[in-house]
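Archive transcription. Copying these from loose printouts into the bound notebook so they stop getting lost. Printout 1 of 2:
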Amino acid sequence: MTALAPLDVLTLRAWARGYLWWAGLIDTIPAALDPLQKFAEQAGIDADHAQQILADAFAPYRETAR
């Protein structure tokens, strides 16, 4: 089995956490984003690229904010 690249992992986790925040299973945006930002840092993902991934993943849910 091939491991996923860190960029793919960040993207998948971001979309999942965006949905969980929207559904009310994660209380706040910082609680949803902080672990993702920490992962991106540890994985050596460029900060600007990570921010764009997070923004893209959360955008549909922010537009229909709970």
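Printout 2 of 2:
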Amino acid sequence: MKAYVVEQYGKDAALTEKDVTLGQTGNYDLKIKVEGTSLNPLDTKMFFGHVAAAPVTGILQGDVTGTIIEIGESVTSFSIGDHVIAFGGGLGNRSGALADQMLVPEQMAVLRPENLDIATAGCLPVISLTAMEVLKERAAVHPGMRLYVAGGTGGVGHLVGQLAKHYGCDVTASASSDEKATWLEEHGIRPHRYRDESAEQLLARLGHDGFDVIVDTVGGGHLQESFILAKERGKIISIATRTTQDLTPMHSKALTLLLFHY
């Protein structure tokens, strides 16, 4: 099969089209004919050698959507011909989706809804898993929670905001343009035009002492702003923290900062 392979990760990394052989289908594996995939920040970090989990085969990208063409002998949840969405490769010993075919563990796949187009389906796995981990595991989301999303129309951010609304939260999110602010409003999310309104001005306008949870998908100056927006003993969850920050405001407000890779 054809694949795009990274032969050496690092600053001089490049993708080379090659003929490769896919490994044996394991007992709990699905062999998928790749129809769609997407590039995530984690793929970029591995490409340039910043994350040690890069696939040994050199075939990146864990997001995939496609059609099952073979199943392992112990697979019970899927059949040949099923259309699926999955995240199950592009790391460690598993090849990714920059190839004609990909092997995915059964437990990392779901059926693709009939009304979901391939382009959208191929973008969903990593950002969806990240958004759900943020809300369910890190934020312990519950109705009435006040939540702020930095980067409210980005890949992870736009899902965090919509899911938080679904779970009954009061959601505010940053927007850098009228178009993005309109999109947020159309989805029931309060926009914060942060270039025109400071964090202090936003809190004064809303009339409360801060947000229970800040989800920072941007990093940099947005993380410093998060320290202002969070209420005392609030929680900040960031997926973009390769920066140097002054943590003094965290100590003065007894904030919790949770970090993880995306």
